[in-house]
């Protein structure tokens, strides 16, 4: 089964997506997600100019060999652009292999380890009443685990609050489908860590008082705290029994998590900006985290992330794969198959894509009673409608950024 054709397809229904489509000499097609939010065209060029010429004529069955070839032959290893490109090839090859076998991908990964995947959604609000409305809406949609993000008094707009869109022409529109704004320049938001640390514990107290102790609640700190600030927040949130505190501090400095871990028993989730196992080595071996947050799309594909999760399993660390709408339906399907197969699954992030995206990507997954299942179609269960994709050309879009009150650029 030789690769006969490789196409890089860019489409922007509800947001920009980059998809690699491989076609074999016997007519099978496989899809891989190469979307890198806010830097999409960098991966397009990497694929089209440097990777696609290497794929034509290769045996599509040799997934491990192709992964190692693309990773090692470039010499310049790792990084989000390289690993997103490799991930797209890897997932497309797994899609092809599973189709050739006449099986859903999870069967080739060892079969199902569970009947479905517990998923969490994103509830948010500028204030407590709006947050409560969002929580109720997610419960009505069937979510059984919910991430809590809230506005902070005195701050104009912050990450994770869907109604805080501040760019021209979008004020007041919830960005449930995409925080990146389609504009020539990124939107500036503001930040005050002290105000955030003072406000947030009261938010979780209010949510627990309103909705009770049984709902798994999550929160994303989005890399905005120092290690000691993260430790302080984790300690303050212990009475509210979080499922996890995510990205509490920039974890590229893996040793920083030692300080956080010493001061709080709140479970920690890290890794949505990580790209390889080397980003996790200390975090896993010293058991400094509880959940691996990487996406199939940004971490070298199914081949690489499965190895990371098997490594994590030795230390009782579970999966929490990244899955908002900056992961295309192709990347989400790959994550579902992987999550269904591994033993140490924890939870799956899941934001629903918009109607236009669902017309471009035909999907076979199911969503029932707060659980996801990738379906049993051969392959990953996603097909790209090329004509529909062509209706939505690429649009420049940037994620926001933060400044402190004195004008200093801060982590967003």
Give the overall silhouette.
globular
Strand-pairing-aware structural class = alpha/beta
Mean pLDDT comes to 94
Strand content: 15-25%
The third-level CATH topology of the largest domain is: TIM Barrel
The total domain count is 2
Instruction: Give the CA-CA distance, first to last residue.
Output: 45 Å
The CATH architecture of the largest domain can be named as Alpha-Beta Barrel
Number of H- or I-type helical stretches: 13
Question: Low-confidence spans: pLDDT under 50, at least 5 residues?
Answer: 166-177
CATH class of the largest domain: Alpha Beta
Please compute the radius of gyration using only Cα atoms.
Answer: 21 Å
Number of strands: 18
**Name given to the CATH homologous superfamily of the largest domain:** Enolase-like C-terminal domain
Question: How is the topology of this model organized?
Answer:
Blueprint: E1 3-11, E2 17-24, E3 29-33, H1 40-55, H2 63-73, H3 80-101, H4 105-108, E4 117-125, H5 128-140, E5 145-150, E6 188-190, H6 193-211, E7 217-220, H7 227-236, E8 244-246, H8 256-263, E9 268-270, H9 281-285, E10 291-292, H10 301-313, E11 318-319, H11 329-341, E12 348-349, H12 355-360, E13 361-363, E14 366-368, E15 371-373, E16 382-384, H13 386-389, E17 401-403, E18 409-410
Parallel strand pairs: 4-5, 4-12, 5-7, 6-17, 7-8, 8-9, 9-10, 10-11
Antiparallel strand pairs: 1-2, 2-3, 4-15, 13-16, 14-15, 17-18
Helix pairs in contact: 1-3, 2-3, 3-10, 6-7, 7-8
